[in-house]
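Need a sequence for this fold. Nothing fancy.
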């Protein structure tokens, strides 16, 4: 079996001296769709932001394709960042730029390609997400689901080996969310991209996840790991079963 593309080891983080996640460890295999889930305040998005290098943990390692993003700096850090793409929850497209110009941005930052080559690559990425007819549109002129797709196209601009998606289904209707799930699966299978997704949308979890970890704010750690359908049916943790079966707690009933 090949080396995992991501290894998180002895990871601890928090704010203002308060621990949020303590001594957690997990791996992500190459080419899998890996989902981070948990209740509100469990640290899902915080963990993702550490994995993409925005935050520094109190302790531990986050090894991306053989290199620790926690300790890397300078050219070594830039080399790691070129291997990853990120789609933020809102899409985070620049409203004053067309879709083509948005997708071109990473190419302008990280490559020395000429304008024609950057335009060609940006059009190719937009075609991959079904937006080849909307290159000249502004973000305000397209739907929320299309904005998410454009953000994925931008995240793929540098041909990353890993794509991180933060709450991709947030704000989308069920049909548009299902279409986005299918796009993720198609990209994962056809381009062999590894996906790390933060979400609590059960339909999406069951549709796309090869494997999940569930964070819990009470234990400050991982309380479940594996196939979501198996966890739903066989977990001996009542909270895990409630989450996957969308059942209210006794206190809320």
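Here you go.
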């Amino acid at each position: 079996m090949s080396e995992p593309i991501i290894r998180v080891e002895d990871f601890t983080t928090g704010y203002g001296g308060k621990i949020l996640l303590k001594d957690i460890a997990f791996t992500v295999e190459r080419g899998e769709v890996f989902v981070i889930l948990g209740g509100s305040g469990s640290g899902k998005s915080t963990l993702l932001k550490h994995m993409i290098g925005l935050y520094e943990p109190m302790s531990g390692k986050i090894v991306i394709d053989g290199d620790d993003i926690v300790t890397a700096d300078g050219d070594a850090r830039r080399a790691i960042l070129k291997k990853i793409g990120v789609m933020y929850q809102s899409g985070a497209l620049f409203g004053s730029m067309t879709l083509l110009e948005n997708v071109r941005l990473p190419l302008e930052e990280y490559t020395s390609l000429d304008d024609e080559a950057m335009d060609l690559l940006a059009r190719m990425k937009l075609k991959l997400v079904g937006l080849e007819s909307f290159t000249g549109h502004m973000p305000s002129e397209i739907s929320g689901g299309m904005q998410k797709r454009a953000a994925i196209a931008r995240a793929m601009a540098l041909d990353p080996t890993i794509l991180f998606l933060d709450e991709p289904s947030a704000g989308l209707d069920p049909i548009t969310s299902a279409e986005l799930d299918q796009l993720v699966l198609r990209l994962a299978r056809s381009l062999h991209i590894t996906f790390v997704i933060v979400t609590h949308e059960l339909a999406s979890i069951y549709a796309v996840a090869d494997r999940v970890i569930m964070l819990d704010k009470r234990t400050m750690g991982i309380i479940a790991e594996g196939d979501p359908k198996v966890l739903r049916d066989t977990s001996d943790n009542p909270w895990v079963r409630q989450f996957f079966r969308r059942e209210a707690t006794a206190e809320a009933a």
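For context: The mean pLDDT is 90.
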